[in-house]
Write a structure and sequence with these properties.
- The structure is a single chain.
- The chain is α/β, with parallel strands linked by helices.
- It has 14 helices and 22 strands.
- Strand 14 and strand 15 form a beta hairpin.
- The radius of gyration is 22 Å and the shape is globular.
Length: 452
């Protein structure tokens, strides 16, 4: 029987190709996806990895064999697949391993309207069915298999985004974009076409071997080329997309990275200007700045666990207009509650181009605290280390504890969160304080417990 325990993660299927993850397995997933969702039609897209066309084609065969009509949109970003799922009203599957190294591939799956498929909303059932069929053999195809057709939605996707954020009247901006040889190289030219933007394109050649650097802008080493280019050409803003282009990071005119929490606060303020009194979702490791800015702009902040399925669930439950994570995932009610780095980037461009100041000046009002960034520590006993941290801070005067996601300890001048990784023997620490000295002090104190 196929053991999927190592390749089925929180919201997608991901593994090494072909050792763990091959076309016969993808075909079973296509059949199981249709069986579990009950879909009579689905939409499929894929990224630029060499294995993606074959895996997505196999998934399409499996789905069609169970009677579902399949619309293949070909090369696309993950948020372009979400657009297709939302606009066409179809469940969808995106073949990508996002920012992971070249030897990996996977699927992100959603129901109609880009509603996520997670462990509790179908993924566990899909996994169980695939394992059973791997052991017993796949079922016979239905009497009337579905049709497989192709459709290009890139132009419609770009037009829809541009209907949500009007950039036509902004002042001209010089923009450097590092696509990391990922799908931003496919979507950015069409989305930005005809706008008052002087585009300096870096690594737009689609190449799933990632010859220049990993397509993971969350790691500072992958921003070095963009930062150097920014300083060289004197651009107004730099943008870096991850491999499947659903996340976007910004770099200011000095080449300094802009905190995703500051971007979350900026976009929240803009969305609240359009939807007064709205609810904004933020996870438990975003900056204090986010709920502060939300309240200052008349909105209601709602705090949630880290992870896209939790954010999307809260978006749906509360009717929130926007949600942001410190990992640079940004979610919009106007985009079927799905995440789209491109739309967030357009908001930043609109805000920057709508005034005369620099990006660093613009975001200063949203970036109010010092932060450690995420610090990972390998541990033998995640639960035991968390318990030790809780014991050290529980009852300490002036602090409060909560366990919404891992452990968060909050004082007047600082907070920290420690969360266990779901897939590795790691604890992840984030610290924020009113100044850098406070961050250093709290960070060192907590790490002494984690690593002691």
């Amino acid at each position: 029987m196929t053991d999927l325990s190592q390749i089925v993660k929180a919201y997608d299927v991901r593994g090494v190709v072909p050792a763990q993850w091959d076309e016969p397995l993808a075909e079973l997933f296509g059949a199981a996806f249709v069986e579990v969702t009950g879909a009579d039609a689905i939409v499929i897209g894929h990224d630029m990895r060499p294995s993606s066309p074959g895996l997505s084609g196999a998934f399409a065969r499996g789905a069609a064999a169970r009677g579902a009509d399949v619309t293949k949109i070909g090369l696309c970003s993950t948020d372009e697949l979400y657009y297709a799922s939302g606009s066409l009203g179809l469940p969808g599957a995106m073949f990508t391993a996002s920012h992971n190294p070249a030897q990996y591939n996977g699927i992100k799956m959603c129901r109609a309207g880009a509603t996520p498929v997670g462990q509790d909303t179908g993924l566990t059932d899909i996994r169980a069915l695939v394992e059973r069929w791997s052991d017993e053999g796949a079922p016979e195809p239905v009497a009337k298999p579905g049709n497989v057709t192709e459709r290009d939605v890139l132009g419609d996707y770009a037009a829809y985004l541009r209907s949500l954020v009007d950039l036509s009247g902004i002042r001209p901006l010089k923009v450097v974009v590092d696509a990391g040889n990922g799908m931003g190289g496919h979507t950015v030219p069409t989305v930005f076409e005809g706008l008052p933007l002087e585009l300096d394109a870096m690594y737009f050649e689609l190449d799933g071997s990632f010859p220049n650097h990993e397509a993971n802008p969350l790691d500072p080493k992958n921003l070095v080329d963009l930062q150097a280019r920014m300083r060289e050409v004197g651009a107004d803003i730099g943008l870096a997309f991850d491999g499947d282009a659903d996340r976007c990071f910004a770099v200011d005119e000095n080449g300094d990275p802009v905190s995703p929490s500051a971007i979350t606060a900026l976009v929240a303020a803009r969305e609240l200007a359009k939807h007064p009194g709205g609810t904004i979702i933020h996870n438990c490791i975003t900056s204090w700045s986010v709920p502060e800015v939300v309240r200052e702009n008349g909105g209601t902040p709602v705090r949630t666990r880290v992870g896209h399925s939790f954010i999307k669930d809260e978006m749906a439950r509360t009717g929130a207009i926007f949600g942001g994570e410190h990992s640079a995932h940004y979610y919009f009610r106007d985009f079927w509650n799905a995440d789209t780095g491109m739309l967030a980037a357009m908001h930043v461009l609109a805000a920057l181009g709508g005034q005369e100041g620099t990006l660093s000046q613009l975001v200063a009002q949203y970036d109010r605290y010092a932060a450690s960034g995420e610090i990972n520590s390998t541990v033998d006993d995640q639960a035991g280390r968390l318990a030790a941290i809780k014991a050290a801070y529980e009852g300490r005067p002036g602090t409060t504890l909560d366990e919404l996601d891992g452990l968060t300890v909050t004082a007047d001048d600082w907070w920290f969160n420690v969360r266990p990784s779901n897939t590795e023997p790691l604890l992840r620490l984030n610290v924020e304080a009113r100044d850098a000295a406070g961050v250093d002090r709290v960070r060192d104190e907590v790490l002494a417990i984690i690593r002691g």
